[in-house]
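Q: Could you fold this chain for me?
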Amino acid sequence: MALSQDELKKMVGYKSVDDYVKSGMVVGLGTGSTAYFAVERLGQLLKSGELEDIVAIPTSVRTKEQAEELGIPLVTLDTHSKLDVAIDGADEVDPDLNLVKGGGGALLREKMVEVCADKFIVIVDESKICDGLGPGFPVPVEITPFCHEHTLRTVGNLPSCAGCKPVLRMGSSANNQVDGDEIAVTDNGNYIVDLHFEEPIKDAVKMAEQIKSTVGVVDHGLFCDMTTAVIIAGSDGISVKEPSS
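A: Sure. Below is the predicted structure, expressed as C-alpha cells.
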C-alpha cells in the first residue's frame, strides 16, 4: 500500500534528526508540516535520553509553541549566532538545490536562522522536486506594510521577475490561499507578496539579488546556495541529494 503524504513527511523528518543531530548541538527548527515531524523526533530523543545538551532555535511562533510543549530547550540568535545544523522543509527544490520557501509565512526567520547553520538539511517529499523554480509554487516576498502597494508594483516590474503576477497574501499568513478579507501579517508584523510564475525562473540567483535590493522588501523565499543536503521521501523509499560541487 502506498504511503500517505504525511507518512512520507514523517520518514524524512525523523531521518533528518537521526542522521544529523548529535548531543551538545545547537539546532535550528524549521516551520511547516514536514519540519513538524523533525521537531517531534527531537523531542522524543531528548525525552528518551538518546540526545542530551541540545538547545534549539525556532523559526516561528508555531514551532516555538510545539518545541515548548515537547520540552525542547530554546534559545535565540541573540545568544547563539552559530548553529551546528538547521532542519526545514521547502516548497520547491530545483536541480541545483536552490529552494522556494515561505509558503507557511516564516521565510524571514527561517532564513535568518538557516544562514547561520554549519549544515542546512532540507526535508521534502518527492512532489516538491522540480526542473525549475516558479510555476509549481509562488515565490513569497516579505515587505513592509508602509506603501506596500508601491513595493508590490516595484518587485513585479523587476527585469528578473518578468512575467510574474504579484499577489498580496490575504487571510492567514501561514498559507498562500485567500482565506480571509484582511491582509495577512507575518510573525514580524510585515505583509507577504506571492509572485506567481507561469514559466520557470530563468536565473533564481539574480532574481534573489534584485528582489533583496528593492527598498521596502524585508526578504524573500528564494534560498540559493544554502543547502547541505536534501532528504527526499518518495514512493520507492528515501534518497539524499547533495549539491554537485
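A (continued): The mean pLDDT is 97.
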